[in-house]
Amino acid sequence: MRRLALRLLAILMALLPVGVGAQGVQPDPALRARADALVAILDGRGAYRTYFAASFRDKVPAAQLSAIAAQLKAAIGAPQRIDAFTATSAWSADLTVRYARGTASVRLVIDPAPPHAATGLLITGTAPRDDSMAKLEAEFRALPGASGFGLYALGEGKPAPILDYRADVAAPLGSAFKLWVLAELARQVAAGERHWADVVTAGAPSLPSGVLQTWPAGSPVTTQTLATLMVSISDNTATDTLLTTLGRAKVDAMAASAGGSVPVMTTREMFAVKGDAALTRAWAAGSVDARRSLLAETAATIATATLDPTVFAGKPVAIDSVEWFASPAAMAGLLDRLRGADATTRAIMSINAGVDPAIAKRFGYVGFKGGGEPGVQTLNYLVQAKDGRWYAATGNWHRADDAVSEVRFAGLMGRALALLAAR
């Protein structure tokens, strides 16, 4: 699987590190000037080469920026003005850009050296004007292909639906299956079967996303390190190592108890099965037991196979079979189970909030895990309002005939969280 973008709209453009916004920050006048000029850039009228520094242009060609701007205009109309400007340092700011039918949240960074060209731009969220639950549901229903979502209040009993659509229909999860692995680790730690500080050996490398595949073979790592890499940056090698360490049968049992599909493939197995037409057909046609046998019979071959990274370079591949599956309702139950786990589990989930910072700061806690590949997107949030109430927000969008738009889907889930925050 390719790495799911870690924030709403997921458009990281050579962004330099910036600090958290603070009162009393004095922006350089050049920062405000660049912010005002951004409207023309987003409208396709600005001078790309003079507005952006060479370091930015090398990573984000003009055509790519134009495509992003076009997606925004299609969704919320033409950009009009800067509605809000909050300096986070002398050379960086969080902006709210007003569009004809909504707003976009943007983080801007400029070079301290003249002529103060923009070195970083991050679009972190969009929202229509006068949003509502009814508008959100209508836009989910309008997505091409298949989709589903659920917003739930969490308390003493089962998650209570606030708004849902096709919430009981199982859908491909992509990397969100890694929450099953995290839940099983949390269970084993709580039972005293394992500890966060346990040291294990890194297993066979999988494909990115992640970094562990680049470490020396057999590197010692703790279970907490593996879980942190697995959730925060969706590290596939860390996931596979942790899954096999915990025990395949135990992870299967956790997935089944959480309403998920079994057997639970490692990411290496998924790459290998998708990359071999005969294995893909056998998996699609097989029962649960037949699939388990297939994994056992091919284990030695898959463990040493050269994985093909181009499997995900084109159109969707076997997303209706060679995947991990669960419904929004099932994922909400899993998030509720993780809510009841220990503080370390919740801390791991909160490293990457996966949402516009302006929305995240409206909650006391945000835990996140998403997943995706061509044709598949899923985002899952465990959030606590500042008044102490807990919620789960989980959604999916998939189509077997074409890719789906991360920008569009992440925007919808960001709006769902914003509506929850306003309750």
- Uncertain segments are 1-22
Domain module count: 2
**Proportion of strand residues:** 15-25%
- Biggest beta sheet attributes: 5 strands, antiparallel
Q: Please tell me how large the radius of gyration is.
A: 22 Å
- With strands numbered from the N-terminus, the spatial order across the biggest sheet is 1-5-4-3-2
Number of strands: 14
- Average predicted local confidence, pLDDT: 92
Number of helices: 17
Distance between the termini: 35 Å
Main structural class? alpha+beta
Would you tell me which CATH topology of the largest domain applies?
Answer: Beta-lactamase
Overall geometry comes to globular
Query: What percent of the residues sit in helical stretches (DSSP H or I)?
Result: 25-40%
Q: Determine and state the CATH class of the largest domain.
A: Alpha Beta
Give the second-level CATH assignment, the architecture of the largest domain. Answer: 3-Layer(aba) Sandwich
CATH superfamily of the largest domain: DD-peptidase/beta-lactamase superfamily
General description of the model:
It contains 17 helices and 14 strands. It has 2 domains: 11-128; 132-423, Beta-lactamase (3-Layer(aba) Sandwich), CATH 3.40.710. The protein has a 5-stranded antiparallel beta sheet with strand order 1-5-4-3-2. Mean pLDDT is 92; it is low at 1-22. The chain has 423 residues and is of the alpha+beta class. The radius of gyration is 22 Å and the shape is globular. It has helices at residues 29-42, 48-51, 54-59, 62-76, 133-141, 178-190, 223-232, 236-246, 248-257, 267-274, 277-285, 288-297, 299-304, 328-339, 343-350, 357-360, 406-421; strands at residues 11-13, 79-89, 92-99, 102-110, 118-128, 146-154, 160-165, 171-172, 199-201, 220-222, 325-326, 363-373, 376-385, 390-398. The longest helix has 16 residues, at 406-421. A hairpin with a 2-residue loop joins β12 (363-373) and β13 (376-385).
